[in-house]
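Reading a protein record of the kind used here takes only a little practice. The record below shows the convention in full.

——
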Amino acid sequence: MNKTVVFAIGACIMTLYLIFGSLTHAKSHSYNSTSEKEIYEKYAELENRLNDLEPPKPVTIHKSPQEKEWEGKYPSTTFPISEVLKTGSKIPFNTIKKDPSYERPVYQEQWHSTYGGGRWSSIPSRIYFAQHRLFPIYDIGLSGLFDFEHNIGIDFPTFQNKTDLDLYIVVFQTNVTEVYTKGNQVIVVGNPQRHGVQVITVKTKDIHPSDLKKMLLIQLATNGYELDYSLIGYEPPNYWAGREYLNKNKKWFKKPLFNDTPE
């Protein structure tokens, strides 16, 4: 377990200690100048914050909710990284953000249980994100992108190219040098470094999945070895054109295919 994970756990435990301390104080206070309603509301607020921080009962969690969603969608056929580098296609990438001196924080304000209703305060989620250094995403949903940036702790420019969709890949502590693809795999090659963040984009037109029903396996690699991986569904380069077509014809698509009403 790396230093970031250890500090994240420590910060979360301290938060739990403070919350329990507040609850104990609320129960033992004489309430001479505080109404019962205010006491109840404070207790409910602290209880909700605690529910956001941890599971209701002690439990061992091996997979995040996102990883559980991936089950059954892992590519059926994968190749060794060395084979993808030799027989796959090298594809261009564009760097849209790069800060070699960036240090991943142990804790950020938006991860507090009072920030945004505790939306990003879950201890299991915080540990999951701290365990990884590779995060892919599309700019096809404002809500999803909003959560993504708050979870990983950085922001970056997005373009929403209407005819040539970009796949964004956020990489921590690695200097990206090349990108290769074969089948449902995308290999991001780079040199590990102690600090830094880099955000790159690749065009989905350059990726040609062999199985569109399965997800893309995005792998971060150095010297032929995997450093990290993530999964994401494939979206075609004309994604936005398809969305606009559906929006223009949504009334038509809502009509039943067959009219069972007698003439």
User: Anything to note?
Assistant: Helices lie at 3-28, 36-53, 65-70, 81-87, 123-131, 142-152, 239-248, 250-254.
